[in-house]
Specification:
Layout: E1 2-5, H1 9-19, E2 24-27, H2 32-36, E3 40-43, E4 48-51, E5 54-58, E6 64-69, H3 79-87
Length: 88
């Protein structure tokens, strides 16, 4: 599991240190990854130059097997939805 955050390196580093996340974080300050996955948008309701919350299940060959893209920053899949996708 890898988290991708389209944010400033220092802010992400502080967040990771404070929360002790149990997975790696990719810092995407230039927004290259979020653009490649089609989840970047220039203007959101709560910020500029951000990405939509998104989850992708990618197999070993790099194929996307499942995805969830939220319409707002607070929209995320449930744990059951994620686990069902992983089980498939």
């Amino acid at each position: 599991m890898v988290g991708v955050l389209a944010q400033n390196h220092d802010a992400v580093r502080r967040y990771v240190e404070e929360t002790g996340l149990p997975f790696d974080i990719l810092i995407d300050e230039r927004r290259d990854v979020v653009r490649a996955y089609g989840v970047w948008h220039r203007i959101g309701l709560d910020a500029l130059n951000i990405s939509r919350p998104a989850w992708f299940l990618v197999d070993q060959d790099g194929a996307i097997r499942w995805s969830f893209i939220g319409d707002s920053q607070g929209e995320h899949p449930t744990l059951d939805e994620i686990l069902t996708a992983v089980d498939r």
